């Protein structure tokens, strides 16, 4: 179910009413007219569900006077909605928590190219679409949480080792439907070719301590509980658990460590959260202005502080507590390569029995 949010709690009712009226108008039978532009509004379709984003949008409104209306859902929901709405869509910006999802929106013709010297100067070329259809504004690494009482860091310093016989029956991982796993396998196909990547996927399935279940935090908890010795996870889940309000999660993270495997000797696999201007954005200038705001060092620092992701720019220092996990080498592969490989990755994982 899609929820409508507002970055300003005090303006919630007004924002909900505004977006509801726009969406209702777009859904009227036979009405394909594009919604009118509104200089004081930017409409965001977002699959990110974090307090950090609300704080960012509130700050953007404070600085610019432009209200941010957010329609929230998962990436596939929002892509389907954008398709259905066509030219009548009120969406100005599409935001997703994975480069593969951003690519799917781009491939469907739902994003438009944007040329912004401001964005391009702040965001490395490998962390945005080559044609300017979308840009990353936060990074996360897909790495390994492990039990230091049972595993040596040298045993998991490459991605190959995750699938090695050393970890038969000792790996926890979420399902193949996870877009994070699809992007990782897509990156491995790009780096290694299909045959070697298929062998890795087969090894992962053979190493599973249990059928995939739950999210990344569930895999981390399973390691602490002794169900497995290692787990694939996004970095920010682990860092959040170690620095959050839940004492049980802090205890779990305190028992474990993070390892940053290297892909082809070039560093750990990274993914991005990012956004792009919707193809039929009625408020295009506001959309570009919001994306430029998200690329600022101040915004990157806020996301890192509140959501425990890494800044997108190497020139922005990671704040505490993320800084304690920020010294790793990031693989330089272009994140735009993950999406075109995801269908192949899904087929490969399904054939291997990765459910």
Overview of this structure, please?
This protein starts with a strand and ends with a helix. The protein has helices spanning 12-26, 51-64, 75-85, 99-107, 117-122, 159-162, 179-192, 194-207, 216-224, 235-243, 247-255, 284-294, 297-307, 342-352; strands spanning 3-5, 41-46, 67-72, 93-96, 135-146, 171-172, 230-234, 257-259, 270-277, 310-311. Helices cover 41% and strands 14% of the residues. α2 links the parallel β2 (41-46) and β3. With 355 residues, the protein is α/β, with parallel strands linked by helices. It folds into 2 domains: 3-139 and 271-319, D-Maltodextrin-Binding Protein, domain 2 (3-Layer(aba) Sandwich); 141-268 and 329-352, D-Maltodextrin-Binding Protein, domain 2 (3-Layer(aba) Sandwich), CATH 3.40.190.10. The chain is globular and about 60 Å long. Strands 1, 2, 3, 4, 5, 6, 7, 8, 9 and 10 form a 10-stranded mixed β-sheet that branches.
Looking at this protein, list some descriptive labels:
disordered N terminus, D-Maltodextrin-Binding Protein, domain 2, alpha/beta, 355 residues, 2 domains
* Overall mean pLDDT: 91
Task: Give the number of domains.
Answer: 2
Classify the fold: give the CATH topology of the largest domain: D-Maltodextrin-Binding Protein, domain 2
Compute the number of helices.
14
Largest sheet: 10 strands, mixed
Structural class: alpha/beta
The CATH architecture name of the largest domain reads 3-Layer(aba) Sandwich
CATH class annotation of the largest domain: Alpha Beta
The count of DSSP E runs of length 2 or more, i.e. the number of strands, is 10
| Helical content class | 40-55%
How would the global form be characterised? Answer: globular
N-to-C SSE string, H for helix and E for strand: EHEHEHEHHEHEHHHEHHEEHHEH
**Fraction of residues in β-strands:** 5-15%
Q: Report the C-alpha radius of gyration, rounded.
A: 20 Å
